[in-house]
Amino acid sequence: MDLSETGVGDAMLVAVSGRIDLSNADSFRDGLSAAQAKTGGPLILDLSGVDYISSAGLRSLMIVFKAGKAAGKAFGIAGLQPLLVEIFTISRFNQVFPLFGSAREAIQKLAPDSLSAFDAR
Amino acid sequence: MQVTFWGTRGSLPTPLTGKAVRKKIVNALVKGAGRNLDTPEKAEEFCSKELSFAEGGTFGGNTSCVQVDVGGPDYLLCDLGSGAREFALAAIGRHGPGKPQTYHVLLSHVHWDHIMGFPFFIPCFIPGNRIVLYSCHDRMEQAIRGQNHEPCFPVEFEALGAKIEFVKLEINREYQIAGTKVTGTPQLHGNASYGYRIEKDGKVLVYTTDAEHKPENKKEMDRASAFFKDADLVIFDAMYSFAESVSIKEDWGHSSNIMGVELCQMAGAKKLCLFHHEPVYDDQRLEGVYDETLRFEEITRSGPRLDIVIAYDGLILEL
Ligand SMILES: [Zn+2]
Ligand SMILES: [Zn+2]
To answer: What is the mean pLDDT of residues B265-289?
Structure first.
C-alpha cells in the first residue's frame, strides 16, 4: 500500500494505492489521521489505485471518518474501482461515506473554493 | 454428523405476518399467471422451480436452537431458544412420550432468546427424562431456575418431572458430551457468551453465535480463526451489516457476514452458515444478504472456495 498526500487549497487530498488489509490497516489509519490533522478542511481520499480493502481497512476508514466528524471536518471517498464499489455496497459502507466518482468531483462538492487550486496542479 | 436448525432468528421470535404472507401469494399468482397451474402437483413444481426461496417460503422466526446428531442414543442441542419447542415435538413424535430420553444441551449464554424455549420444553415435564445443561457461563443455573419461577412462569423449576442437571464447563478444555468432543471459547458479548467446537469422527462443527469480532484486533482475529480451524461447518452470528457493526451498533455484541467470510477464509473452514438473523429483516432482505455474501466470498477468494449457506428454520445439513 502506498499513500501520498497533497494539500489542495483548504482540502487535503490523499491518494492511496495497492491492497489494504489486516497487515497494513494500522499504518493506513495512522497515515490518514496525520493527513487529517494537517488540514482544517475536508479530507478527500482518492482510492482509484486501491484494488482490495479488507474489513480491517474499512474499519480504519470508519475511525478516521468519525474523528473528522467530531472535529467538523468533511470526509469524502473518490474513484472506487468496480470491485471496491461492490465491497462498499456489501458492507453497507456506501451508506456511511459520501462517495464520489473522481477526486475532482469530491473537491467540487466538499471544497468548491479549492477547485481552481485542484485544476491548477 | 447431521445438523438440524430449529431456530435461526436473533434476539426475539419473529413470526411471519399476514401482510407478508399475502405479499408472497400475490407475487406467486402474478408470476404463475397463464401457466395452467390447475393441480397441486403443477403448482408445487412451479413453486420449487420458479420462485426464489424467499418468494416461495420463509426463513422462519424461531430463536436459536440447533440439533447435532452423531448417531448416538442421546440428543445433543445447541441453545434452547423458541425453536426448542419444534425440536421437542419432533423428538417426542419420533419415539413417543413414554420412552425416556437423555437430552444434552450446550448453552452459548443465558440471554433470553437462547433459553426462552426451556419453560416450554416438553421433555422437562416427563419423569424419566434426563436433561443435562452445559455451559461455560457461570450463571447458567441461576438463569434457568429464575425463568421457571413466579410471577413470570407458573411451573416452578422444582416441580419439573425430568431429572435436570447443570454442568459448568471450563474454557479451552475438552469434554466428552453425547459421544462428541466439545471445547468452549469465550466470545465478546454483553454478559458473556461462549462458542463451542464439536468434533466427532473427523468432522468439526463450530457453533459461534452472539459474538462480536473487532477486525483491527489481530490477536483476537487469530484466536477466533484458530478456534474455527479447518471446521466443516461454522454456524456464525451474521446479524448486522459490517458497517453497522463498526459504527452505530459497535459493542452491541454481534457480527456480520463480512467477518464470517474473512474469519472462515483465515481458518480454512469449508462451510459458513449465516445465523442469528436480524428480526427487522424480512425474507427478501435475508435472501439479498445471502446473495451478497456469496459474491463477497467470490471476490475475496484467494484459496479454495468457501461454501456458504444461510440458516432457516428446518434446514438440515449433512457433514
Ligand atoms: Zn442472541
Ligand atoms: Zn446474546
So the answer is: 98
User: What CATH number should be reported for the domain holding residue B204?
Assistant: 3.60.15.10
Residue range(s) defining the domain that contains residue B128: 2-14+58-318
pLDDT at B283 over 90: yes
Whether residues A96 and B256 touch (CB distance < 8 A) is answered with: no
B199 in any annotated domain: yes
Q: Which residues contact B82 (CB under 8 A, 6 or more apart)?
A: B7, B13, B62, B63, B65, B113, B116, B117, B120
* pLDDT (tens digit per residue) in B131-184: 999 999 999 999 999 999 999 999 999 999 999 999 999 999 999 999 999 999
Instruction: Give pLDDT tens digits for A77-93.
Output: 999 999 999 999 999 99
B215 CB neighbour count, 10 Å cutoff: 27
Assigned domain for B39 exists: no
With respect to residue B34, please indicate whether it lies within any of the assigned structural domains: no
| Number of structural domains found in chain A | 1
Asked if residue B30 belongs to a domain, the reply is no
Residue ranges of the alpha helices (H) in chain B? 18-31, 40-50, 53-56, 83-95, 112-115, 140-147, 218-228, 242-245, 257-267, 283-300
Range of the domain at A46: 2-120
Q: Please identify which residue in the block is written with the cell numbers 454481534.
A: B254
Q: Chain A within 8 Å of B222 (Cβ-Cβ)?
A: no
What's the domain count of chain B? 1
Q: What pTM value is reported for the model?
A: 0.96
Please tell me the distance from the alpha carbon of residue B249 to that of residue A83, in angstroms, as a whole number: 26
The ipTM (two decimal places) reads: 0.91
Query: Look-up: residue for cell 455474501?
Result: B293
Distance B109 CA to ligand 2 centre (A): 7
- pLDDT tens per residue, range B75-84: 999 999 999 9
How close does chain A come to B265, measured CA to CA in Å?
Answer: 12
* Cross-chain residue pair A92–B215, CB shorter than 8 Å: no
Q: Which residues of chain B lie closer than 8 angstroms to A89, CB-CB? A: 292
Q: Which residues of A touch B257 (CB under 8 A)?
A: 90
